[in-house]
Amino acid sequence: MVIEVLLVLTLPVAGAAVLAVLGARRRAATVNTAFSFATLLAAAALVVRVIRHGPVITGHEQFFVDSFNVFLVALTAFVGFTTALFSRPYMRIEQHHGRVSRRRLRLYHSMYQLFMGAMLMALLTNNIGLLWVAMEAATLSTVLLVSLYRTRASLEAAWKYFILCGVGIAQALFGTILLYFAAGKQLGNQGTTALLWTHLDAVKNHLEPRVLGLAFVFLLVGYGTKVGLAPLHNWLPDAHAEGPTPVSAVLSGLLLNVALYAVIRFKVLVAGAIGAALPSHILMAFGLFSALLAAFFLWRQRDIKRLFAYSSIEHMGIITFAFGIGGAVANFAALLHMTVHSLTKSSIFFSAGHASQKAGTQQMDDIRGLMTVSPTIGWGLLLGSLAILGLPPFGVFASEFLILTTAMRLHPWATPVLLLTLGIAFAAIFRRAQPMVFGETNAKRLPHSPALLPVFIHLGLVLLLGLYIPPALAHWFRAAARLIG
Amino acid sequence: MRTLERPFPGTDTALNILAACLLLISFAMLSRRRTQRLVTLLAWQGMVLFVSTLLVAHSSGRVEMYYSAALTLLLKVIVLPLILHYLINRLGAQWDTETLVNIPAVMLAGLVLVIFAFGLAQPVSVLATTITRHTLGIALAVILLSFLMMITRRKAITQVIGFLAMENGLFFAATSTTYGMPMIIELGIALDVLVGVFILGIFFFQIREQFDSLDLHHLEALKED
After folding, report:
1. pTM for this prediction
2. Residue B150, SS3?
3. Which residues between 178 and 207 in chain A have a beta carbon less than 8 angstroms from any beta carbon of chain B?
4. How does pLDDT run across B70-123, given as a tens digit for each residue?
5. Cα–chain-centroid distance for residue B135?
6. Å between A106 CA and nearest CA of chain B
7. Residue contacts between A and B (CB atoms, under 8 Å)
8. Which residues of B touch A143 (CB under 8 A)?
9. Which helix (H) or strand (E) holds A57?
10. Where are the domains of chain B?
11. What is the ipTM of this complex?
């Protein structure tokens, strides 16, 4: 097995084991960061290998890295590390405020690493059965994180999360079984060959269309629940608002991406079997509906984390819509949007988390004048909000502009809906962000200095991606766009 | 695809009868009020799955199906019901009942779901070459009925039982179309289910500590206004 892949997969699991033992120590947060950093280094080594030697298939073909998952692996390891960096002071402040005990921090750190491991496994595996197992493991490891504060609201959110995603993922398993059954006709049901994506991709034109059509509906509903596509999105705002902020950041920034990644992998297979028209239309409809619905809900939010959770649904909807359009440009834009949304949204959650710690509440009406007490948090939140709203020169502008122009060219009917969505979202978030950042304040001092470096690293990268896309990344995006079709 | 090697006479009929039992148990679950009885029914469902997997293993001559059957016996007939019973005892919910509104309507909805499931499964099952292909419709029906049960129940434990019954239906679907998933995947799924139930166990105590009840109507504060 390729050593980099092995390291990326095992480091988080080792981290979870180590932190399960000594997670209650004072140093636990540092150990957590160290493991995340080691995972990031392993992922970077993997990226270098892919740049030098091209795609990798390893471990008896059970794992692979191609142009579609390589940047997602890098992104996941990166955001995993910066979130660990943010989580260290953030959770210390939470502990100081008496919201969590040392013992619960042990659970928190251990599960955090396990969650990272599950997501990286889901991204790297070539086996669609293993993909399912890893996605379910990702849900299970975060359920107890969402209910970490043991408040009534957080228990309710975690319960909803578990049941909705559990039922969703059960549908996905049925879809996987159907796909395995259809593949067995071509590849035989001995061993795992009929579950390997690369083999499925090779025979996708010969798979039984009727079975594949049915399988896609189940798979889309199943993994779509985790993407947060409406009307299956109910768990998402609650889980984001009630869980600890670092968890909200990785749920929004990473888990949604990984679930969408799974949907798109299956879309490729199904499009090969039954033609691109049906899966494309379903994705476009789901995407557009989610984006529009989320935009309306954005308008009514009072809780800062719920606001940005709905914004995640909106953006996931836009990305799903773009994948639905398909073709080189739209897929390129969707992949870029996945990247910039992940970076921007996690940075917003970092600033929003510290902002609500300062104000002592997540209610936006009571968060005031961040600029005067803590200019860095204020700027972080302001710039993050402007970036997510798609203002140039940030990267979100570039990807949204591409999506919008492609939609105008290929599906003109969708353009007014998209513009309406973006307009409502802009007004809804801007009218909330502005008074939080400017004006008078009653905010208090934090017991530990907040970590705002990750916020500005993320925003810097988003700015960079708006102005210049590194050639290697552009190459992957183009190759992946071709692969997705 | 290997064809039948050593089918018992009447294996076909026996499998169909077992599948019918599975469906009947699902209907019984829809109407049972006492939580403890539901656990017993769930264990019976596991037992039926075990026997039918064993039969299929024998008639298809696939060795890994025997492992799969053993895993079913261990997990679905013994471990999970034991955990659930333990939880119910620890939570003092032995005599808990639920008020079910309008059982006839639920039953009727169940019937419609069964017809729908058969319609959906029909084009797929004609393509299958397994001895159990006709039972895919029943497997899908069990999944949908469990879903219906989760919707109509208000208690945390009952919802989890519905969830596990849904998993049973999925397992049955895998057996009836393809003689089960590869062993490594079945092990992964079993592990996920076990960990899931374990986490829920912890979760029940947290819920009860906060709300003094496992009734889910307390868990309806988070709504969009």
Report:
1. 0.93
2. helix
3. 178, 180-181, 184-185, 188-189, 191-192, 195
4. 999 999 999 999 999 988 888 877 777 777 777 888 889 999 999 999 888 888
5. 15
6. 16
7. 131
8. 199, 203
9. strand A56-58
10. 11-224
11. 0.89
